Amino acid sequence: MRFSAATTAERLLPERLAARALPWAARFDTLMHSADARGQAGRMSLIVFAARIVNAAIAFLSQVLLARYMGGFEYGIFVLVWVTMIILGSVSCLGLHTSIIRFVPEYRTKGQLAELRGILFGSRLFVLVFSSACAALGALGIWLLEPSIESYYVVPFYLGLVCLPMIALGDQLEGLARAHSWALWAVAPAYFIRPLLILLFLWGAHMAGYVPDATSAVIAAILATYITTIVQLTVVARRADRSVPPAKPRFLPRQWAAVSLPIFLVEGFFFLLTNADVLMIGRFMPPTDVAVYYAAMKTLSLVHFVYFAVKAGVAQRYAAYIHGGETAALAHFARETVSWTFWPSLAMGLVVLVLGKPILMLFGPGFDAGYPLLFLLVGALVARSAVGPAESLLTMSGHQNACAAVYAVTLAINIGLNIVLIPALGLWGAAIATAVAMLFEATVLSFTVWRKLGIVMAILPAMPKKEAL
Predict the structure, then answer these.
(1) What was the pLDDT predicted at 445?
(2) Which of 235, 268, 345, 365 could form a disulfide with 385 if both were Cys (CB 3.0 to 4.6 A apart)?
(3) Rounded Cα–Cα distance for residues 101 and 171 (Å)
């Protein structure tokens, strides 16, 4: 027996209220129980969105505790180290954590079981080996450049590299879970379990009397990351392997690289674009300013996670429509996902602007200095959401090269503006650079989707539909 919101509303609510609630309850039932493609994608997006809300609460609590526990200076050091490791972890996948979302449904649809087994095992092994090599090279780089690095960054960065392979493997396993529409296992490890464990280990360090500094926070993150990724590997990898009938694995590294490397550029540019402001502030300003800006960005993430939730839910469905040759259904579904992204982002943006200042004050004295920045950043992020997950549509449809080019130009604009504006305007310079980059990205991505696929990815009426090239 399954839960029905419509039936529950009829039984528990007064007649007049139930009559108003029934249409919404029926839509909810359709979304949660529908077996068609739209239902699966919507269900995954809803689960990811709910998980992101829980994660936002956990992540926010952990960041508040970290900021209050360590103080602005040490917190700023930890932020710069952790953001860098997250970027390097994603980049170390070389695009395989996203391309696998495309390959799994393609191989299943075509009955290529040997290739499917090959990508399941080969992608995990490659990511683990390559990310370990990147960590070793990173340690060598720190050793060579240590004289030019601020002394308070050296030990935390060395420690951060220890968890780099597990961050990368976790990203790959997240992509594997998304490829199978396993929503909870796609988001729970990195966005729920890991932040909780970091809090737990930090509490243990506090009880044991350790000094509240960035080093102890990075050690807590290492322990949490290893435990989370090992659990994720045990469950997701085994479940994926069991879902494929026995077959001798066939490895196609050239085919995988041809698709993954442009995606690697897209993902790498995207991650750098998302975090370039934090990294550049760390280059030009002291850790205290990094802490203030990062606290503002964590508050802004309440808006941003809407986009990530929709993206996580629809990428696999884009790929299925494309490889199934359902052009009309793809166009309709793609335009629908724009609404899924824009309206919740707009609502969350208004909430953040209303509650932003008291939220930032929770981090400690002086953190509310980042509140005025939210008006510019929220406006830019809502404008970005007006084109939906356009880059996922390009990537899943084989236009990853065009998408990479868009992000390369956008990143260059962002970094260039940061270099010019941060020394002159401080945190406002970083915010302006980020806002301009977001608006440019949204405009060009929307135009590129229309030009390549003939699909209008925009919340408002735009250019007329054209034939796909």
Answers:
(1) 93
(2) 345
(3) 12
